[in-house]
């Protein structure tokens, strides 16, 4: 019996009842840690960009892609926070004088930065 293209490329079959089913495996990719931003983007891909998610998953590039998104989002988040703190004049002196006001203003900045990162990187 002639070999199929799948067998010529190194593929194998296994019996499932009366049928030969190809043994498909996803190539192993290097595991990289994925943070909060990467997890949010993964959820977004699964819900709203299913084709992109499946393509990344089956090509073995999903983990690297999510790690890169996580890194980009974290860097953008930090830059936004520092820029907004300087723009609004939030200093360590304010922190020493009025810790409650400083905390409120920094939390507001973090919420704004989170929204910007979500709109620019995560939910795109």
What are the SSEs and their pairings?
Blueprint: H1 5-8, E1 13-16, E2 19-22, H2 36-48, H3 50-59, H4 62-88, H5 92-97, H6 99-122
Antiparallel strand pairs: 1-2
Helix pairs in contact: 2-3, 2-4, 4-6
Main attributes?
124 residues; mainly alpha; two-stranded antiparallel sheet; 2 strands; 68% helix; TnpV protein
What is the number of independent domains? 1
Order of secondary-structure elements: HEEHHHHH
Strand content: 5-15%
**Rg calc:** 24 Å
Protein architecture, described:
This is TnpV protein. It comes from Hominisplanchenecus murintestinalis. With 124 residues, the protein is mostly helical. The protein has one domain. The chain is built from six helices and two strands; from the N terminus they run H-E-E-H-H-H-H-H. The N and C termini lie far apart (50 Å).
Summary of the model, kept short:
The chain has 124 residues and is mainly α. The protein contains six helices and two strands, in the order αββααααα.
């Amino acid at each position: 019996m002639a070999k199929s293209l799948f067998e010529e490329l190194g593929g194998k079959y296994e019996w499932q009842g009366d049928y030969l089913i190809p043994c498909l495996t996803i190539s192993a990719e290097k595991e990289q840690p994925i943070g909060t931003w990467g997890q949010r983007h993964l959820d977004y891909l699964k819900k709203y960009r299913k084709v992109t998610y499946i393509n990344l998953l089956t090509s073995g590039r999903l983990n690297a892609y999510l790690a890169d998104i996580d890194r980009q989002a974290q860097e953008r988040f930090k830059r936004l926070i520092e820029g907004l703190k300087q723009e609004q004049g939030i200093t360590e002196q304010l922190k020493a004088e009025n810790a409650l006001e400083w905390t409120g203003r920094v939390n507001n900045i973090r919420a704004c930065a989170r929204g910007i990162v979500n709109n620019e990187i995560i939910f795109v």
